[in-house]
């Protein structure tokens, strides 16, 4: 039997576990999927927007893998300094596959970035997704309900689209989601009327996918506003035929909006392009009062240069949605430039040579790009490397049951029945509030629920 630990129970971790147990091989493979949280599914639970029920339902596919007879979910197991170091994990398993994602957000590096009222989009997403590491009252205390009429979202990727959409959604549309009750209450009281979503390059370089973009145009009570003159600064706007298909479709959606007469709806999402953030500015109370941008000009090769002309957009809330970034895991090599672990076909490289028994998959392997499905071939490649190495890996003696070793190291995992107890508690919480399933947003609540209390 080959004992493998997969660290991280998001899509890449679960796809790695699936690829491992799908093989009809000798030696047989047994997989423990470890997660720092007592809840599985990673960004499917804590990143996919609550109003994207279809993508969320992917949890059902991931669940069947975690319920496989040779797969075991072990939640509340932290790997790293002060917890279980990678070297100790390798004593307990023949191989470890790190699928820890990209947990931090990229910084903008402009003055005013940390003003009150300026947040990373990932922080906002974590808050409305009930991630227990986010202070549950963070946005509640932030004057979000009281003062925000205009918000700026910096970046034009799918996360930017998600947060812009959630900002303008009405309570009736959010009520059926599993959003925690406190977040729902705050968003229900929101007075946001304008969301400015701003890209530093042109529409043909935008990173959002067309399906997600189109959804903005179908929001009730919200108008999407684009300035045809600004779109036309992009040389590919007049003739998008040379663009990749996805960008061409985006341009066509934007063109449709540019040609549509205003409908006088109460909320607006303004899509802006060729504006590079240079500073966030403070108001009288020291809170963010706006964002200053420099107008950029296309260089004809997909890049831009500054024009020396500036534009201020007033905003009482700024969400910086400029991408995720991998964080180093103490005990594993790390490439700070790329924010990933150096690897060859998924084998972790230490000083340029493969480190026996250590592998990576998902965003910590290839960076924070692609959609959920991209993780499937990525995990498959890593698992293939692992299985090729398996004859050597099994020669090393490891304990019959790694769980005893984890317990001896002071770890008290939340096993599958504990997670099912959390699921039941969330269904019960929803019932008591007259809603569907409602997520528990805090560590204490999750721990109590896992113990069936
Ligand atoms: P992303 O796709 O990498 O987009 C980041 C955006 O930030 C880009 O527009 C980028 O512009 C901009 N940016 C980066 N640095 C900047 C700076 N210093 N100043 C101004 N703008 C800056 O990242 P993401 O939106 O966080 O998404 C991460 C991944 O998750 C993506 O693969 C995405 O498709 C996926 N995702 C998918 C869904 C879905 O399928 N529904 C939902 C959420 C996320 P440049 O291009 O100019 O660098």
TrEMBL record:
Segments traversing the membrane: none
InterPro entries, sorted: FAD/NAD-bd_sf, FAD/NAD-binding_dom, Ferredox_Rdtase, Ferredox_Rdtase_adrenod
Enzyme class: oxidoreductase
Pfam family membership, one: Pyr_redox_2
GO molecular function ontology, one term from the record: ferredoxin-NADP+ reductase activity
Keywords: FAD, Flavoprotein, NADP, Oxidoreductase
KW 4Fe-4S (keyword) present: no
The protein's Enzyme Commission number: 1.18.1.2
Cofactor: FAD
Catalytic reaction(s) noted: 2 reduced [2Fe-2S]-[ferredoxin] + NADP(+) + H(+) = 2 oxidized [2Fe-2S]-[ferredoxin] + NADPH
Binding positions (NADP(+)): 200-201, 212, 370
Residues covered by the FAD/NAD(P)-binding domain: 3-169
Binding positions for FAD per the UniProt entry: 12, 43, 79, 363, 370-372
Family of the protein in this entry: Belongs to the ferredoxin--NADP reductase type 1 family.
Protein name: ferredoxin--NADP(+) reductase
Organism: Streptomyces alboniger
Phylogenetic lineage: Bacteria, Bacillati, Actinomycetota, Actinomycetes, Kitasatosporales
């Amino acid at each position: 039997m080959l004992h493998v630990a997969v660290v991280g129970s998001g899509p890449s971790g679960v796809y790695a576990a699936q690829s491992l147990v799908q093989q009809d091989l000798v030696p047989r493979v047994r997989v423990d999927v470890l997660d720092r949280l007592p809840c599985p599914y990673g960004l499917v639970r804590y990143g996919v927007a609550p109003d994207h029920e279809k993508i969320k339902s992917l949890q059902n596919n991931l669940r069947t893998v975690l319920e496989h007879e040779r797969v075991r979910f072990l939640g509340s197991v932290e790997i790293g300094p002060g917890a279980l170091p990678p070297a100790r994990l390798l004593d307990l398993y023949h191989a470890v596959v790190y699928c820890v994602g990209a947990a931090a957000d990229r910084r903008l590096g402009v003055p005013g970035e940390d003003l009150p009222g300026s947040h990373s989009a990932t922080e906002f997403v974590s808050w409305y997704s009930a991630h227990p590491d986010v202070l549950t009252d963070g946005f509640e205390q932030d004057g979000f309900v009281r003062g925000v009429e205009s918000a700026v979202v910096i970046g034009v990727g799918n996360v930017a689209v998600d947060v812009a959409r959630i900002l303008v959604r009405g309570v009736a549309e959010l009520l059926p989601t599993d959003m925690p009750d406190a977040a729902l209450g705050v968003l229900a009281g929101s007075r946001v009327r304008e969301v400015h979503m701003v890209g530093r390059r042109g529409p043909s370089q935008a990173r959002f996918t067309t399906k997600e973009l189109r959804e903005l145009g179908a929001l009730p009570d919200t108008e999407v506003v684009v300035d045809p003159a600004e779109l036309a600064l992009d040389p590919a706007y007049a003739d998008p035929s040379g663009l990749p298909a996805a960008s061409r479709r985006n341009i066509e959606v934007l063109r449709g909006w540019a040609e549509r007469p205003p409908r006088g709806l109460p909320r607006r999402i303004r899509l802006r392009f060729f504006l590079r953030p240079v500073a966030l500015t403070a108001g009288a109370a020291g809170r963010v009062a706006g964002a200053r941008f420099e107008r950029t000009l296309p260089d004809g090769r997909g890049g831009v240069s500054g024009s020396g002309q500036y534009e201020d957009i007033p905003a009482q809330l700024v969400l910086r949605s400029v991408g995720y970034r991998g964080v180093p895991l103490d005990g594993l090599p790390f490439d700070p430039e790329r924010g990933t672990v150096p690897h060859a076909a998924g084998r972790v490289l230490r000083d340029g040579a493969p480190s026996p028994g250590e592998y990576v998959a998902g965003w910590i392997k290839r960076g924070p790009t692609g959609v959920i499905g991209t993780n499937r071939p990525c995990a498959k490649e890593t698992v293939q490397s692992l299985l090729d190495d398996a004859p050597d890996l099994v020669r090393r003696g490891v304990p019959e049951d790694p769980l005893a070793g984890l317990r001896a190291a002071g770890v008290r995992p939340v096993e599958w029945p504990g997670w099912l107890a959390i699921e039941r508690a969330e269904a019960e919480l929803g019932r008591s509030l007259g809603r569907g399933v409602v997520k528990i947003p805090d560590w204490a609540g999750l721990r109590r629920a896992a113990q069936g209390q």
